[in-house]
Write a structure and sequence with these properties.
The protein is of the alpha+beta class. The protein has one domain. It has helices at about 10-60, 110, 120-125, 135-140, 285-290, 290-295, 340-345; strands at about 70, 105, 160, 170, 175-180, 200, 210-215, 220, 235-240, 265, 280, 300-305, 320-325, 330-335. The chain has a five-stranded mixed β-sheet with strand order 10-5-9-13-14, covered by helices on one side. A three-stranded antiparallel β-sheet has the order 6-7-8, with no helix packed on it. A hairpin with a 5-residue loop joins strand 7 (about 210-215) and strand 8 (about 220). It is globular and about 90 Å long. The model has no long low-confidence stretch (mean pLDDT about 90).
Length: about 350
């Protein structure tokens, strides 16, 4: 006689099984995400190691480190005698190329390209011309995998440098590493009440000033050699992580752009991933478009002084709780965002 019973799951058993699988998946998902982030963080650190090797190769070939950027002319009439060269972006302001040529030429990343196995891209640049010239713009759009941290969720969207002035086509690829120009105050040494500011070769900012440097590893039209770091290369941060801008008009994290925030970091007094805002030229439009609360929530706050200029940028990353840094000796270190701010400042100062 055949049995009248069937073997299988009841509805209740099936629901319980699904619930158990759901709990197991929810427990496993954070571990998977953590493993993926660990892999991304390792890739990011490997990028910095390659950049460190390139810096050393450049120094071997030229007996000095690359400058932060090359600024094409002396004097900055837009600064009113208060702000120096290297702070005003004429393309973003709509001044160039119509009224006058752009003054920003090659930056430290462009100079490192041959040491990063990017000689073809380096040869595509005409170093006698501004980076925004029609000759150089195609190269500025090139994606550099070595300069992109895989943890950054915004570095695939390019920067439109002239978009805030209503012009498209001035496109720049993103990057996630910035050269340390120094933790100096955002003022100049010769000014009253500025004991720890930046240096210039002359006090005539309107007409004759041609250099700007702080206590970091390079400056504008300024290079240093390894002998200029008496406290030791292992105690000096050369390159920090920075985050790519979260909108096409946000200039932060742009590898070919030698502006503060683009591929250069200054004012490290506040520590990594700080809530202190970055001073960038497009901040007013960013706040109108996205809101200040949104920028703060995304960890990308910004501020703007009455004059439209790039004047402050901090080290930031999307790694939980840390940023990666490259020391001048070529070693790479993950630094907690809770590091003592005095220690952090000293690590960025000669």
């Amino acid at each position: 006689m055949k049995s009248r019973y069937r073997f299988g799951f009841t509805i209740v058993e099936l629901l319980v099984s699904i619930a158990i699988i759901g709990v197991l998946v929810s427990l496993l998902l954070p571990a998977v995400q953590a493993a993926r982030e660990a892999a991304r963080r390792t890739s990011c650190k490997n990028n910095l190691k390659q950049i460190g090797l390139a810096l050393h190769n450049y120094h071997d070939a030229h007996r000095k480190l690359p400058p932060g950027n090359i600024w094409g002319t002396r004097g900055e009439p837009l600064g009113g005698g208060i702000l120096p060269i290297g702070t005003f972006d004429r393309v973003a302001m709509g001044i160039s190329p119509g009224t006058e040529p752009d003054r920003l030429h090659a930056n430290w990343v462009i100079f490192l390209l041959p040491s990063l196995e990017q000689s073809t891209l380096y040869d595509a640049f005409d170093l006698s011309l501004p980076v925004d010239s029609v000759v150089n713009l195609p190269a500025c759009r090139a994606e550099l995998p070595t300069f992109k941290c895989p943890s950054d969720s915004f570095n695939d969207a390019p920067y439109e440098r002239a978009l805030q002035s209503g012009t498209s086509g001035h496109v720049y690829a993103r990057g996630n590493y910035g050269l340390n120009i120094g933790p100096d105050q955002t003022c100049l040494q010769f000014m009253p009440m500025c004991p720890n500011g930046f240096y210039t070769d002359t006090n005539d900012l309107l007409n004759t000033n041609g250099t700007l440097w702080g206590s970091g590893v390079a400056g504008f039209n300024v290079s240093f050699d390894f002998g200029d770091f008496p406290k030791g290369h292992s105690n000096m941060i050369a390159v920090d992580e920075l985050r790519a801008g979260i909108d096409p008009i946000d200039p932060r994290g742009t590898w070919a752009l030698g502006f503060i925030g683009g591929s250069i970091l200054v004012s490290h007094q506040f520590g990594p991933n700080t809530t202190v805002a970055d001073g960038i030229i497009s901040c007013s439009l960013l706040k109108l478009k996205l809101s200040n609360k949104f920028l703060v929530r995304k960890g990308m706050p910004c501020s703007l002084i009455p004059i439209f200029a790039n004047f402050r940028s901090n080290s930031r990353s999307q790694h939980p709780g840390i940023v990666n840094t490259l020391r001048l000796d070529g070693s790479v270190h993950s630094v907690s965002e809770n590091i003592d701010t005095e220690v952090w400042t000293r690590l960025h100062s000669r």
